[in-house]
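Message: Just now I want nothing more than another pair of eyes on a protein record. I am handing you a single protein, as its sequence and its fold in token form. As I understand it, each token names a local backbone shape. Take your time, and here it is.
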Amino acid sequence: MSFRLVTRARVRAAGALLAGALALAACGGEDWSAPHPKPHAIGRLGVGFVDPAAPPAPEATIVPTPGSWDAVHPSRGYRVVLLRAGADESTLTLTGAVEDWAAAEHASLKTVDAADPVAGIVRAIGLAPDLVICAGNQLVDALALVTASHLKQQFLVLGAELAEPTENVTAADWPGASFRGEGLGMASAYDPATFTRERAERAVRAGVAAVLNGITGIVIRLD
């Protein structure tokens, strides 16, 4: 039986997992049960991120001008779940970049380790964050199946992308980091050496800037 069919069966059972995940929302880190103001962007996107007169179409790939996202920051207390899977160097690099970004931006960060991708995604959704940031190729296939059923939850995928993302899934990657799952295997151009800390940090900032400005459901391609 294919991975996709097996995962679909598990997704159908995710409702029960989500109910359990809601009970875990207050576990670890800050208590997110209190009322939370709607997050907003502080600062504006620079010239060259997108053309305001011709916003990108769904599933489009944009190549923003380097640094055009630097002036954008989340409002204080922005709630983020770091959903990670795998202990390879690439995933660890992405994880470190997210943690450093959250500390610098005074974001409220919780981490979910997804040994089981579907269960991990469901638990992340149950925490009801402003954004779920995903690190690890092992998550891609499960994200492709689960995210379409949770359109109110925003996701940012780092160093990979979904083949057919819905409007709530944004990706930030670069040449050498464009794993898409769906049984497509590893791209021939995949190169773990391209997962540098500097590039991972730019992916986080560019991706969050896009989400805060409502530019979602696309792929942000960095150099």
Summary: The longest strand covers residues 79-84. The domain at 3-25+41-221 is CATH 3.40.50.2300 (Rossmann fold). Residues 104 and 161 are 26 Å apart (CA to CA). The chain has a mean pLDDT of 88.
